[in-house]
């Protein structure tokens, strides 16, 4: 029997936000290089919050092959794409409008389907199937990289503590209409998709995250959504944090080598 136990998470911590963002950029470029060498493209899912800004060390960086990126959203608020709450708008403003990525390589949700979230999720799944399923007969897409943040309540993507979506086993993309954090209508990649990725990386900074990360990393048995991110073998989970965010965490650090 092959060993399918998930690898333990790798936690890297940095003194400053510049060092953190530089390491994240380095890590992403390495993942991109491996993916492009293997199959000529790089599939990545991104969430909102501080993350798009934390990716700004990629702007102007040598080695980023933007034309090879295929970008999806790990979660999205169901609002027009130019609405201030849109994760797509945030990513465009902070990153994609500043780099030479072809517009067709970015895959936002279709907000014209906002009145039928079932249909909106189906449409986004079809978008994913176009990228993944033709080349890969796997039951779930295998992203090269999923980049996530973590909220103060331990939510990640739009997977909130205690929500029925935490046990979703079939859908690739699911919706909620009762998000405890506004706006209430959101769509999200599900745990089976997140946990099939080749790599998942959380990026978390600031002392406001200290208690949450203590629970997520030191007490995974409490089952907060961020603790449920455990990519299946041979996938790997990474945590990129600043020292303030992990000041209360006992989980061992790994030195990141640039
Ligand atoms: O959709 C949302 O409400 C936010 O995008 C949210 O999920 C965010 O990603 C986390 O709260 C982490 O955000 P920070 O890294 O900014 O704390």
Notes on the structure:
The radius of gyration is 17 Å and the shape is globular. The chain has 258 residues and is an alpha/beta fold. 25% of the residues lie in helices and 17% in strands. The protein has helices at 17-39, 51-54, 87-94, 117-132, 191-194, 210-218, and strands at residues 10-14, 42-46, 69-73, 75-77, 106-107, 145-148, 173-176, 186-189, 199-204, 236-242. The longest helix is centred in the first third of the chain and has 23 residues, at 17-39. The protein is built from six helices and ten strands, in the order E-H-E-H-E-E-H-E-H-E-E-E-H-E-H-E. The chain has a single domain, classed as Rossmann fold. The strands form two sheets. A seven-stranded parallel β-sheet has the order 1-10-9-6-2-3-5, sandwiched between helices. A three-stranded antiparallel β-sheet has the order 4-8-7. The structure holds 6-phosphogluconic acid (6PG). Pathway: Carbohydrate degradation; pentose phosphate pathway; D-ribulose 5-phosphate from D-glucose 6-phosphate (oxidative stage): step 2/3. It catalyses: 6-phospho-D-glucono-1,5-lactone + H2O = 6-phospho-D-gluconate + H(+). Pfam families: Glucosamine_iso. InterPro entries: 6-phosphogluconolactonase_DevB (IPR005900), 6PGL (IPR039104), Glc/Gal-6P_isomerase (IPR006148), NagB/RpiA_transferase-like (IPR037171). This is 6-phosphogluconolactonase.
């Amino acid at each position: 029997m092959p060993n399918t136990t998930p690898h333990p998470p790798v936690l890297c911590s940095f003194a400053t936000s510049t060092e953190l963002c530089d390491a994240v950029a380095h890590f992403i470029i390495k993942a991109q290089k491996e993916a492009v060498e293997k199959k000529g493209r790089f599939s990545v899912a991104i969430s909102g919050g501080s993350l798009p800004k934390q990716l700004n060390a990629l702007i102007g960086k040598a080695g980023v092959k933007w034309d090879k990126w295929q970008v999806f959203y790990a979660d999205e608020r169901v609002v027009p794409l130019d609405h201030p709450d849109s994760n797509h708008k945030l990513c465009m403003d902070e990153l994609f409008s500043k780099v030479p990525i072809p517009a067709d390589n970015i895959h936002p949700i279709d907000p014209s389907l906002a009145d039928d979230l079932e249909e909106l999720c189906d449409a986004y799944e079809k978008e994913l199937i176009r990228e993944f399923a033709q080349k890969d007969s796997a039951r779930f897409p295998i992203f090269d990289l999923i980049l996530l943040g973590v909220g103060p309540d331990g939510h990640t993507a739009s997977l909130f503590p205690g929500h029925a979506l935490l046990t979703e086993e079939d859908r690739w993309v699911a919706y909620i209409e009762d998000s405890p954090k506004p706006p209430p209508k959101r769509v999200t990649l599900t745990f089976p998709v997140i946990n099939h990725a080749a790599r998942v990386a959380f990026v978390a900074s600031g002392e406001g995250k200290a208690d949450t990360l203590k629970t997520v990393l030191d007490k995974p048995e409490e089952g907060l959504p961020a603790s449920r991110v455990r990519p299946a073998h041979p996938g790997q989970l990474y945590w990129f944090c600043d020292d303030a965010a992990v000041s209360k965490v006992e989980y061992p650090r790994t030195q990141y080598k640039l």
